[in-house]
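User: Can you predict the 3D structure for this chain?
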Amino acid sequence: MAPGPDNIFVLTQSALKGRLAGFVVTLGLCSGIIIHTTAVAFGVAALFQASQLAFIALKVIGAIYLLYLAWQAFRASSQEVALRGTQRPEYGKLYRLGFIMNITNPKVSIFFLAFLPQFADPGRGQLPPQMLLLGLLFIASTILVFGSIALLAGTLGEKFASSPRAQLILNRVAGTVFTALAIKLASAERL
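Assistant: Here is the predicted structure, written as structure tokens:
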């Protein structure tokens, strides 16, 4: 529930494009969690923990991506916002955005590397299947939390949908949030 890039992304996309858009972003983010869980289960995430270069490369890619999203939000004019309100969101693009957003955040891999092994027990069998099960439980909780955020933000966004000025303000807020998250990610240190 702590504000981070992923749940803020769900919030802004839901407010701007509707509840369903927020749920699609959530599914993309959860697909990224599958990648992180698999990486931890098979030891790949340890590379990002051990290699400063790999960690820096992934966080720079993530920060650039967030700045790209900020740039798109800042350059949207009120006319584009009004036109988008009448168009159906591109759900495939939103899914990909959520997926990329999640997998380019090295702190997620490191979090999973630190978090999941605490709950795995070698006495109960092989560790990779246990890690994957724990990842699935994390995905279920993510769907509940992010789904709730999408529902709430999408409902509030509908109230602003009739006002191009309010939509423009939401885009500027989203751009500011993405810029702040890019700066935070770029300055992140390994745990």
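Residues 127-160 form the longest helix (34 residues). The chain has one domain: 5-186.
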